[in-house]
Specification:
This is Pyrrolidone-carboxylate peptidase. Homotetramer. Removes 5-oxoproline from various penultimate amino acid residues except L-proline. The protein has 213 residues and is α/β, with parallel strands linked by helices. The chain has a single domain (2-200), classed as Aminopeptidase (3-Layer(aba) Sandwich), CATH 3.40.630. 31% of the residues lie in helices and 21% in strands. It is built from six helices and nine strands, in the order E-H-E-E-H-E-E-E-E-H-E-H-E-H-H. The strands form two sheets. The protein has a seven-stranded mixed sheet with strand order 2-3-1-4-9-5-8, sandwiched between helices. A hairpin with a 2-residue loop joins strand 2 and strand 3 (34-41). Helix 1 (18-26) crosses helix 6 and helix 3 (117-126) crosses helix 6 (184-200). The radius of gyration is 16 Å and the shape is globular.
């Protein structure tokens, strides 16, 4: 059994990306009887999905968790829905800046993740690790990847997946006064717990987790 864990290369002027550092830290580890396989993806529209396709073919995973960096967030944010929209506020690492474009033409307007996110967040909070649910993965490469991933997994019965946004690392936040951060060790432990819960939980908790606005 394999779990594919993806992270992005640095973007937006940063020299590191916590999503890749966290994924790399878990590469080769066994969690819940499954081997973790980490893959670094380019922060580039379309190319990220091409790299994902190669990783899916090579790994043949039973579970896929994609990670991304989200400055301004203060915890591990478990995304619930990906929208079929690219609308980039800044260029990607190849200089592309699509505006009001579909991720996949003719695909549904949205895809939901299939991780037991409520159970994961509840477990993390019980263990003192900051975590929350999120209703928006944005409209940059993270959402692009999340939508593309779930569109692909719709054709792979039994394979579940989702997306997690991570805060900045302290060394990044030091250059951006006022931005929240978490240590890498906390992120890694949180992801370890998340993978354990995802592998062991088939039905998510039936508890309120929505937002008023």
């Amino acid at each position: 059994m394999r779990v594919l864990l993806t992270g992005f290369e640095p973007f937006g002027g940063e020299t590191i990306n916590p999503s890749w550092l966290a994924a790399r830290a878990l590469d080769g580890e066994r969690i819940g009887g499954a081997m973790i396989v980490a893959c670094e993806l380019p922060c580039v529209f379309d190319a990220a999905l091409q790299a994902l396709d190669s990783a899916l073919a090579d790994c043949d995973p039973m579970l896929v968790i994609a990670l991304g960096q989200a400055a301004g967030r203060c915890d591990l944010s478990f995304e619930r829905v990906a929208v079929n929209l690219d609308d980039a506020r800044i260029p990607d690492n190849a200089g592309a800046q699509p505006i009001d474009r579909s991720v996949i033409a003719g695909a549904p307007a949205a895809h939901f993740g299939t991780l037991p996110v409520k159970a994961i967040v509840a477990t993390l909070r019980q263990q003192g690790i900051p975590a929350s649910l999120s209703m928006s993965a944005g409209s940059f490469v993270c959402n692009h990847l999340f939508f593309g991933l779930m569109h692909r997994l719709a054709a792979r019965p039994g394979v579940r997946g989702g997306f997690v946004h991570l805060p900045l690392l302290p060394e990044q936040a030091a250059r951006h006064p006022g931005q929240p951060s978490l240590p890498l060790a906390t992120m890694v432990e949180g992801l370890r717990v998340a993978i354990e819960v995802a592998l062991a939980t088939r039905e998510d908790l039936r508890v309120a987790g929505g937002e008023i606005a």
